[in-house]
Amino acid sequence: MTRWAAPGRVNLIGEHTDYNDGFVLPLALAQRTVVTVEPAERSVVRSSREDDPVTFAAATVAPGDVTGWAAYVAGVFWAFRAAGHAVPDLDLHVDGDVPVGAGLSSSASLECAVAVALAELGGLDLGRTELARLARRAENEFVGAPTGGMDQMAAMHGAAGRLVFLDTRTDAVELVPFPLAEHGLALLVVDTRAPHQLVDGQYGQRRADCAEAAEQLGVPALRDATLDAVERLTDERLRRRARHVVSEDARVLEVVDRLTAGADPRGIGPLLSASHASMRDDFAITVPHVDVAQDVMERAGAHGARMTGGGFGGCVIGLVEAADVDRVSGAVAAAYAERGWTAPVAFTAVASGGAGPA
Ligand code: GAF
Protein backbone atom coordinates (compact mmCIF):
# COMPACT_ATOMS: atom_id res chain seq x y z
CA MET A 1 0.00 0.00 0.00
CA THR A 2 1.36 3.45 -0.90
CA ARG A 3 0.00 6.94 -0.33
CA TRP A 4 0.27 9.98 -2.57
CA ALA A 5 -0.94 13.50 -2.05
CA ALA A 6 -1.38 16.76 -3.92
CA PRO A 7 -2.44 20.19 -2.67
CA GLY A 8 -5.32 22.51 -3.42
CA ARG A 9 -4.39 26.06 -4.37
CA VAL A 10 -5.35 29.67 -4.01
CA ASN A 11 -4.43 32.01 -6.79
CA LEU A 12 -2.87 35.21 -5.41
CA ILE A 13 -3.47 37.04 -8.69
CA GLY A 14 -3.84 36.32 -12.42
CA GLU A 15 -7.44 35.21 -13.01
CA HIS A 16 -8.72 33.89 -16.34
CA THR A 17 -5.33 34.66 -17.84
CA ASP A 18 -4.16 31.04 -18.13
CA TYR A 19 -6.16 30.28 -21.28
CA ASN A 20 -4.98 33.56 -22.81
CA ASP A 21 -1.31 32.54 -22.79
CA GLY A 22 -0.86 34.91 -19.83
CA PHE A 23 0.60 34.94 -16.33
CA VAL A 24 -0.67 33.47 -13.05
CA LEU A 25 0.65 33.50 -9.49
CA PRO A 26 -0.95 30.79 -7.34
CA LEU A 27 0.33 29.07 -4.21
CA ALA A 28 -0.14 25.45 -3.17
CA LEU A 29 -2.10 25.05 0.06
CA ALA A 30 -1.28 22.86 3.04
CA GLN A 31 -4.68 21.20 2.47
CA ARG A 32 -4.28 18.17 0.23
CA THR A 33 -6.02 15.26 -1.40
CA VAL A 34 -4.54 11.91 -0.38
CA VAL A 35 -4.82 8.76 -2.50
CA THR A 36 -4.04 5.37 -0.97
CA VAL A 37 -3.20 2.82 -3.64
CA GLU A 38 -2.97 -0.98 -3.86
CA PRO A 39 -2.64 -3.34 -6.85
CA ALA A 40 -5.98 -4.76 -8.08
CA GLU A 41 -7.48 -6.98 -10.81
CA ARG A 42 -9.81 -4.22 -11.97
CA SER A 43 -9.53 -0.60 -10.92
CA VAL A 44 -11.83 0.55 -8.17
CA VAL A 45 -11.96 4.00 -6.63
CA ARG A 46 -13.60 4.86 -3.32
CA SER A 47 -13.82 8.17 -1.53
CA SER A 48 -14.49 8.97 2.10
CA ARG A 49 -16.83 11.67 0.82
CA GLU A 50 -18.87 9.41 -1.48
CA ASP A 51 -21.12 6.42 -0.81
CA ASP A 52 -20.48 4.20 -3.79
CA PRO A 53 -17.21 2.89 -5.24
CA VAL A 54 -16.65 3.22 -8.99
CA THR A 55 -14.93 0.56 -11.08
CA PHE A 56 -13.20 0.77 -14.45
CA ALA A 57 -10.59 -1.11 -16.49
CA ALA A 58 -7.28 0.77 -16.61
CA ALA A 59 -6.36 -0.68 -20.02
CA THR A 60 -9.52 0.41 -21.82
CA VAL A 61 -11.28 3.23 -19.93
CA ALA A 62 -12.23 6.03 -22.33
CA PRO A 63 -13.99 9.42 -22.13
CA GLY A 64 -17.68 8.93 -21.32
CA ASP A 65 -17.14 5.62 -19.45
CA VAL A 66 -16.86 7.24 -16.02
CA THR A 67 -18.65 10.43 -14.98
CA GLY A 68 -18.93 12.41 -11.74
CA TRP A 69 -16.18 12.64 -9.11
CA ALA A 70 -14.43 9.40 -10.18
CA ALA A 71 -13.84 10.83 -13.68
CA TYR A 72 -10.99 12.92 -12.23
CA VAL A 73 -9.29 9.62 -11.33
CA ALA A 74 -10.17 7.51 -14.38
CA GLY A 75 -9.32 10.49 -16.62
CA VAL A 76 -5.72 10.45 -15.45
CA PHE A 77 -5.41 6.73 -16.25
CA TRP A 78 -6.75 7.52 -19.73
CA ALA A 79 -4.42 10.51 -20.20
CA PHE A 80 -1.38 8.40 -19.30
CA ARG A 81 -2.42 5.73 -21.80
CA ALA A 82 -3.17 8.34 -24.47
CA ALA A 83 0.39 9.60 -24.00
CA GLY A 84 1.75 6.06 -24.50
CA HIS A 85 2.37 5.09 -20.87
CA ALA A 86 1.17 1.73 -19.54
CA VAL A 87 -1.02 1.91 -16.44
CA PRO A 88 -1.80 -0.91 -13.99
CA ASP A 89 -5.20 -1.60 -12.42
CA LEU A 90 -5.31 -0.21 -8.90
CA ASP A 91 -7.53 -0.05 -5.84
CA LEU A 92 -7.60 3.63 -4.88
CA HIS A 93 -9.01 5.28 -1.78
CA VAL A 94 -9.44 9.06 -1.89
CA ASP A 95 -9.35 11.18 1.25
CA GLY A 96 -8.13 14.63 2.24
CA ASP A 97 -8.99 18.07 3.51
CA VAL A 98 -9.23 20.27 0.41
CA PRO A 99 -12.73 21.81 0.59
CA VAL A 100 -14.79 20.56 -2.36
CA GLY A 101 -16.71 23.02 -4.52
CA ALA A 102 -15.03 26.06 -2.92
CA GLY A 103 -12.87 27.05 -5.88
CA LEU A 104 -9.71 25.72 -4.25
CA SER A 105 -9.01 23.18 -6.99
CA SER A 106 -9.88 19.99 -5.16
CA SER A 107 -10.34 18.34 -8.56
CA ALA A 108 -6.86 19.30 -9.80
CA SER A 109 -5.42 18.06 -6.50
CA LEU A 110 -7.11 14.69 -7.01
CA GLU A 111 -5.85 14.45 -10.60
CA CYS A 112 -2.32 15.36 -9.55
CA ALA A 113 -2.26 12.91 -6.63
CA VAL A 114 -3.27 10.13 -9.06
CA ALA A 115 -0.72 11.35 -11.63
CA VAL A 116 2.22 11.15 -9.20
CA ALA A 117 1.02 7.73 -8.06
CA LEU A 118 0.86 6.37 -11.64
CA ALA A 119 4.25 7.87 -12.53
CA GLU A 120 6.01 6.48 -9.47
CA LEU A 121 4.38 3.05 -9.66
CA GLY A 122 5.19 2.84 -13.35
CA GLY A 123 8.78 4.00 -12.85
CA LEU A 124 8.14 6.90 -15.26
CA ASP A 125 10.45 9.89 -14.97
CA LEU A 126 8.12 12.46 -16.53
CA GLY A 127 8.89 15.66 -14.65
CA ARG A 128 6.41 17.88 -12.84
CA THR A 129 5.30 19.95 -15.82
CA GLU A 130 4.52 16.86 -17.91
CA LEU A 131 2.53 15.36 -15.01
CA ALA A 132 0.58 18.62 -14.73
CA ARG A 133 -0.13 18.48 -18.47
CA LEU A 134 -1.43 14.91 -18.23
CA ALA A 135 -3.65 15.90 -15.28
CA ARG A 136 -4.98 18.86 -17.26
CA ARG A 137 -5.64 16.62 -20.23
CA ALA A 138 -7.78 14.43 -17.96
CA GLU A 139 -9.76 17.50 -16.91
CA ASN A 140 -10.18 18.90 -20.45
CA GLU A 141 -10.68 15.77 -22.53
CA PHE A 142 -12.04 13.15 -20.13
CA VAL A 143 -14.05 15.20 -17.62
CA GLY A 144 -14.85 17.74 -20.33
CA ALA A 145 -14.10 20.96 -18.39
CA PRO A 146 -12.42 23.52 -20.68
CA THR A 147 -10.01 24.88 -18.04
CA GLY A 148 -6.53 26.34 -18.41
CA GLY A 149 -3.51 24.72 -16.81
CA MET A 150 -2.95 26.86 -13.71
CA ASP A 151 -4.44 24.56 -11.10
CA GLN A 152 -2.51 21.44 -12.06
CA MET A 153 0.76 23.40 -12.39
CA ALA A 154 0.22 24.90 -8.92
CA ALA A 155 -0.44 21.44 -7.45
CA MET A 156 2.71 20.02 -9.07
CA HIS A 157 5.15 22.94 -8.60
CA GLY A 158 4.05 24.39 -5.24
CA ALA A 159 6.80 25.01 -2.68
CA ALA A 160 6.86 26.07 0.97
CA GLY A 161 6.84 29.85 1.36
CA ARG A 162 6.74 30.39 -2.41
CA LEU A 163 4.31 31.52 -5.08
CA VAL A 164 4.30 29.68 -8.39
CA PHE A 165 4.83 32.29 -11.10
CA LEU A 166 3.77 30.58 -14.31
CA ASP A 167 4.03 31.82 -17.88
CA THR A 168 1.23 29.79 -19.44
CA ARG A 169 2.56 30.32 -22.97
CA THR A 170 5.78 28.43 -22.29
CA ASP A 171 4.92 26.68 -18.99
CA ALA A 172 8.06 28.29 -17.52
CA VAL A 173 7.85 28.34 -13.73
CA GLU A 174 9.63 30.63 -11.32
CA LEU A 175 9.20 30.32 -7.57
CA VAL A 176 8.70 33.74 -5.99
CA PRO A 177 9.28 34.37 -2.26
CA PHE A 178 6.17 35.22 -0.26
CA PRO A 179 7.48 35.96 3.25
CA LEU A 180 4.20 36.84 4.93
CA ALA A 181 4.98 35.72 8.49
CA GLU A 182 8.27 37.65 8.56
CA HIS A 183 6.32 40.79 7.82
CA GLY A 184 3.61 40.05 10.40
CA LEU A 185 1.09 39.34 7.62
CA ALA A 186 -1.33 36.54 6.76
CA LEU A 187 -3.31 35.53 3.70
CA LEU A 188 -6.88 35.11 4.91
CA VAL A 189 -9.11 32.84 2.83
CA VAL A 190 -12.88 33.19 3.23
CA ASP A 191 -14.96 30.45 1.65
CA THR A 192 -18.17 32.33 0.89
CA ARG A 193 -20.17 29.09 0.49
CA ALA A 194 -22.20 31.09 -2.02
CA PRO A 195 -25.14 29.11 -3.33
CA HIS A 196 -24.40 27.73 -6.77
CA GLN A 197 -25.45 30.16 -9.46
CA LEU A 198 -26.60 29.17 -12.91
CA VAL A 199 -23.09 29.16 -14.28
CA ASP A 200 -23.20 26.25 -16.67
CA GLY A 201 -21.19 27.35 -19.63
CA GLN A 202 -20.15 30.72 -18.18
CA TYR A 203 -16.48 29.71 -18.06
CA GLY A 204 -16.64 28.52 -21.66
CA GLN A 205 -18.38 31.75 -22.68
CA ARG A 206 -15.58 33.83 -21.14
CA ARG A 207 -13.07 31.71 -23.06
CA ALA A 208 -14.98 32.22 -26.27
CA ASP A 209 -15.19 36.00 -25.70
CA CYS A 210 -11.43 36.16 -25.11
CA ALA A 211 -10.71 34.14 -28.25
CA GLU A 212 -13.03 36.40 -30.27
CA ALA A 213 -11.38 39.55 -28.87
CA ALA A 214 -7.92 38.22 -29.75
CA GLU A 215 -9.12 37.40 -33.25
CA GLN A 216 -10.55 40.90 -33.76
CA LEU A 217 -7.30 42.40 -32.45
CA GLY A 218 -5.28 40.23 -34.83
CA VAL A 219 -3.11 38.73 -32.07
CA PRO A 220 -2.44 35.06 -31.31
CA ALA A 221 -3.77 35.49 -27.74
CA LEU A 222 -4.81 38.34 -25.44
CA ARG A 223 -1.39 38.12 -23.81
CA ASP A 224 -0.10 39.85 -26.95
CA ALA A 225 -2.61 42.74 -26.91
CA THR A 226 -2.05 46.24 -25.52
CA LEU A 227 -4.60 48.19 -23.47
CA ASP A 228 -4.64 50.88 -26.16
CA ALA A 229 -5.61 48.37 -28.81
CA VAL A 230 -8.25 46.84 -26.50
CA GLU A 231 -9.91 50.23 -26.03
CA ARG A 232 -10.48 50.37 -29.79
CA LEU A 233 -12.61 47.20 -29.81
CA THR A 234 -16.09 48.30 -30.83
CA ASP A 235 -18.05 45.55 -29.05
CA GLU A 236 -18.42 46.65 -25.44
CA ARG A 237 -18.61 43.17 -23.95
CA LEU A 238 -15.48 42.01 -25.75
CA ARG A 239 -13.70 45.25 -24.81
CA ARG A 240 -14.45 44.70 -21.12
CA ARG A 241 -13.43 41.05 -21.18
CA ALA A 242 -10.16 41.85 -22.96
CA ARG A 243 -9.46 44.81 -20.69
CA HIS A 244 -9.65 42.51 -17.67
CA VAL A 245 -7.23 39.98 -19.13
CA VAL A 246 -4.68 42.50 -20.41
CA SER A 247 -4.72 44.60 -17.23
CA GLU A 248 -4.60 41.44 -15.08
CA ASP A 249 -1.43 40.22 -16.82
CA ALA A 250 0.17 43.60 -16.03
CA ARG A 251 -0.88 43.33 -12.38
CA VAL A 252 0.66 39.86 -12.08
CA LEU A 253 3.96 41.12 -13.47
CA GLU A 254 3.96 44.06 -11.08
CA VAL A 255 3.30 41.83 -8.06
CA VAL A 256 6.12 39.51 -9.16
CA ASP A 257 8.50 42.46 -9.62
CA ARG A 258 7.75 43.83 -6.18
CA LEU A 259 8.06 40.50 -4.36
CA THR A 260 11.18 39.48 -6.26
CA ALA A 261 12.79 42.80 -5.32
CA GLY A 262 12.07 42.01 -1.66
CA ALA A 263 9.55 44.83 -1.18
CA ASP A 264 7.11 44.85 1.73
CA PRO A 265 4.21 42.59 0.63
CA ARG A 266 1.74 45.19 1.95
CA GLY A 267 2.49 47.15 -1.23
CA ILE A 268 0.75 44.54 -3.42
CA GLY A 269 -2.58 45.07 -1.62
CA PRO A 270 -3.97 47.70 -4.03
CA LEU A 271 -3.15 45.41 -6.98
CA LEU A 272 -5.18 42.60 -5.41
CA SER A 273 -8.15 44.93 -4.93
CA ALA A 274 -7.80 46.29 -8.48
CA SER A 275 -7.90 42.69 -9.72
CA HIS A 276 -11.18 42.19 -7.89
CA ALA A 277 -12.71 45.36 -9.35
CA SER A 278 -11.68 44.18 -12.81
CA MET A 279 -13.30 40.75 -12.30
CA ARG A 280 -16.45 42.42 -10.96
CA ASP A 281 -16.82 45.28 -13.45
CA ASP A 282 -15.18 44.06 -16.65
CA PHE A 283 -15.08 40.26 -16.56
CA ALA A 284 -18.42 39.95 -14.71
CA ILE A 285 -17.62 36.78 -12.77
CA THR A 286 -18.34 37.85 -9.19
CA VAL A 287 -21.58 37.38 -7.26
CA PRO A 288 -23.05 39.31 -4.27
CA HIS A 289 -21.65 36.91 -1.61
CA VAL A 290 -18.18 37.42 -3.06
CA ASP A 291 -18.44 41.19 -3.46
CA VAL A 292 -19.74 41.65 0.08
CA ALA A 293 -16.90 39.55 1.55
CA GLN A 294 -14.31 41.48 -0.48
CA ASP A 295 -15.73 44.87 0.49
CA VAL A 296 -16.03 43.99 4.19
CA MET A 297 -12.47 42.64 4.27
CA GLU A 298 -11.12 45.88 2.85
CA ARG A 299 -13.18 48.03 5.19
CA ALA A 300 -12.02 45.91 8.15
CA GLY A 301 -8.42 46.75 7.31
CA ALA A 302 -7.19 44.21 4.71
CA HIS A 303 -4.38 45.74 2.62
CA GLY A 304 -6.09 44.25 -0.43
CA ALA A 305 -8.69 41.58 -1.17
CA ARG A 306 -9.98 39.71 -4.18
CA MET A 307 -11.98 36.71 -5.27
CA THR A 308 -9.73 33.79 -6.18
CA GLY A 309 -10.47 31.09 -8.77
CA GLY A 310 -12.89 30.70 -11.63
CA GLY A 311 -15.68 32.85 -10.16
CA PHE A 312 -19.45 32.82 -9.52
CA GLY A 313 -18.83 31.95 -5.87
CA GLY A 314 -15.91 30.28 -4.14
CA CYS A 315 -13.34 32.04 -1.98
CA VAL A 316 -12.15 35.59 -1.33
CA ILE A 317 -8.57 36.17 -0.17
CA GLY A 318 -7.35 39.12 1.86
CA LEU A 319 -3.83 40.28 2.70
CA VAL A 320 -4.17 41.16 6.38
CA GLU A 321 -2.04 41.87 9.43
CA ALA A 322 -1.61 38.53 11.23
CA ALA A 323 -3.01 40.16 14.36
CA ASP A 324 -6.20 41.13 12.46
CA VAL A 325 -7.17 37.71 11.07
CA ASP A 326 -9.93 37.02 13.59
CA ARG A 327 -11.29 40.56 13.44
CA VAL A 328 -11.44 40.62 9.63
CA SER A 329 -12.99 37.17 9.30
CA GLY A 330 -15.41 38.08 12.13
CA ALA A 331 -16.48 41.17 10.20
CA VAL A 332 -17.34 39.03 7.15
CA ALA A 333 -19.24 36.56 9.35
CA ALA A 334 -21.22 39.43 10.90
CA ALA A 335 -22.06 40.91 7.48
CA TYR A 336 -23.30 37.50 6.30
CA ALA A 337 -25.37 36.97 9.47
CA GLU A 338 -27.00 40.38 8.99
CA ARG A 339 -28.10 39.30 5.53
CA GLY A 340 -29.31 35.91 6.70
CA TRP A 341 -26.66 34.15 4.59
CA THR A 342 -24.99 30.84 5.48
CA ALA A 343 -21.93 31.49 7.67
CA PRO A 344 -18.65 31.67 5.70
CA VAL A 345 -15.66 29.51 6.62
CA ALA A 346 -12.27 31.18 7.11
CA PHE A 347 -8.69 29.93 7.31
CA THR A 348 -5.22 31.29 6.62
CA ALA A 349 -3.34 29.99 3.59
CA VAL A 350 0.15 28.59 4.08
CA ALA A 351 2.20 28.27 0.87
CA SER A 352 3.21 24.59 0.87
CA GLY A 353 4.92 21.91 -1.21
CA GLY A 354 3.57 20.25 -4.35
CA ALA A 355 2.40 16.71 -5.09
CA GLY A 356 4.38 13.72 -3.83
CA PRO A 357 4.39 10.77 -1.42
CA ALA A 358 2.08 11.29 1.59
C1 GAF B 1 -10.38 27.70 -12.88
C2 GAF B 1 -9.63 27.02 -14.01
F1 GAF B 1 -9.53 25.68 -13.77
C3 GAF B 1 -8.23 27.62 -14.18
O1 GAF B 1 -7.61 27.04 -15.30
C4 GAF B 1 -8.31 29.14 -14.33
O2 GAF B 1 -8.76 29.51 -15.60
C5 GAF B 1 -9.19 29.74 -13.23
O3 GAF B 1 -10.45 29.10 -13.14
C6 GAF B 1 -9.42 31.21 -13.45
O4 GAF B 1 -8.23 31.92 -13.32
O5 GAF B 1 -9.74 27.44 -11.66
Automatic annotation (TrEMBL):
Keyword presence, Nucleotide-binding: yes
PROSITE patterns listed in its UniProt record: GALACTOKINASE, GHMP_KINASES_ATP
EC code(s) of this entry: 2.7.1.6
Key words, A-Z: ATP-binding, Carbohydrate metabolism, Cytoplasm, Galactose metabolism, Kinase, Magnesium, Metal-binding, Nucleotide-binding, Transferase
Top-level lineage group: Bacteria
Domain GHMP kinase C-terminal per the UniProt entry, residue ranges: 264-337
Annotated ranges, domain GHMP kinase N-terminal: 72-158
Galactokinase N-terminal domain boundaries: 4-39
Entry GO CC: cytosol
UniProt cross-references to Pfam families, sorted A to Z: GalKase_gal_bdg, GHMP_kinases_C, GHMP_kinases_N
GO MF terms, alphabetically ordered: ATP binding; galactokinase activity; metal ion binding
BP GO annotations: galactose metabolic process
Record-stated family: Belongs to the GHMP kinase family. GalK subfamily.
Protein name (record): Galactokinase
